[in-house]
Design goal:
Elements (H helix, E strand, L loop, with lengths): L25 H17 L4 E3 L3 E4 L4 E3 L1 H9 L7 H17 L3 H4 L2 H6 L1 E7 L12 E4 L2 E8 L4 E3 L2 H7 L2 H13 L5 E6 L5 E6 L12 H9 L8 E4 L5 E6 L5 H16 L10 E5 L2 E4 L1 E4 L4 E4 L3 H13 L5
Antiparallel strand pairs: 1-2, 2-3, 4-6, 5-6, 6-7, 8-9, 9-11, 10-11, 10-12, 12-13, 14-15
Amino acid sequence: MGWLRRGPRRDGEDAPRDPEFAYFSRNEAALFRGRVRETFAELGLEVTVYADHVIDDRGRRFGLTNLAAVCHQDRRGPRVWPGLIRRHVELVVRAMDGPSALDALPPERIRSQLYPRVVNGDGLDAGSFGYARTVAPGLYEILALDLPESVMMLTDDALARLGSHAQLRDRALRNLRGLPVEGHETVRDADGMCFEVVLGDSFYTASRVLDLDGVARRVTGLPLGEHGALVALPFRHQLAFHPIRDTSIIPALGAMASFAATGYEDTPGAISPYVFWWRDGTLTQLSEHDEERGDLRIVVGDDFQELLERLIAQGPDRR
């Protein structure tokens, strides 16, 4: 799971791009959507195909964003798309047609499999997830039920059947804290820049930003200090952080901004292309996309600027 990984570009950059999935050429996107339609048909479902989703004849909506990113990221190319699409569609159809896990599982089993998820707000239906808590601009915390073959994001109606949201969230956070750290890498360069990356196959790896101090203790042996940390969560399987203690924050900030933007691009489960300042559980955005120049820029408020000036005044590397 290399942090600089990019998916293959099968057609040249000069080929006309698909308006919805820019990593596909128009021809590749047509091939992808055609195969999606054929796969649903093979399973007995006729669907109407739209740019980023399909709708079957019963009015059920199936999103294509993650599946398109999975196909794009697979380095074997379009020859393996039929198998990838088939497995995904079969899984989705089984989940939709089978009995709801909320009806099939006993209450305590459900509570033991609850986890909080930090997700990008794009495509999140505010009418169904009114309880969602804002984590940062465009990012929300919801509750999810972890199942053997899928993850069920719980709507307002689902939560109403399970009990108090506050109690359910408390249990979900305890479950999150109990997950193992699957992988940890320290990214560094010859000039001394470094930051930590927690990674794994769990759909909740990036969501561990909700327990960042606990994660920092587990992977570095030290708690986060009074100044907090830089943090990035580009997609669901990666969480990066740099404890703020001295002027090493300056090179780390630029490197993590690039890390976040690269990891977010064309990735299944994308969350955010930006880097944030974590302080006492609150996230403040520190990078953004410059629309005019087409690249990233660092943007800091008065509080962060004051912190930088204090760190510079105290001198370098006081860890």
